[in-house]
Amino acid sequence: MTKTATMTFNPRCGTARKTKAILEEEGYDVTVIEYLKTPLSRDELKRLYDRAGMSAKDGLRAKEQIAKDMNLADASDDEILDAMVEHPILVNRPLVETEKGVILARPQDEVRKIL
């Protein structure tokens, strides 16, 4: 049986590239979602965060200037999800999903927890 994984990916992100390499080394067929080109829907983001046991705030790239400009540090998860849909750069990556679960692979070796 083929092992599969889906991950949010930014080719400019070293952590995402290293995470993808780990998955491939472990024999996973990796589906890449370049989320800056093909943004995730609000429902998909919520599903991933729920499955990972994390809040939208946990998945926020808070260091992005747009996050600061929008005062997202004090925002609700619903407000953060809305902002992520409008500004996909706010989604921290890589989010990886396998049959065993979902994890924010930061640092990249975190992905091993769901392999």
TrEMBL record:
Enzyme Commission number, as recorded: 1.20.4.1
Family annotation (Gene3D superfamilies): Glutaredoxin
GO biological process: response to arsenic-containing substance
SUPFAM superfamilies cross-referenced by the UniProt entry: Thioredoxin-like (SSF52833)
A UniProt-annotated Pfam family: ArsC
GO molecular function: arsenate reductase (glutaredoxin) activity
Keywords, comma-separated and alphabetical: Arsenical resistance, Oxidoreductase
Family recorded in the similarity comment: Belongs to the ArsC family.
Protein name, as recorded: Arsenate reductase
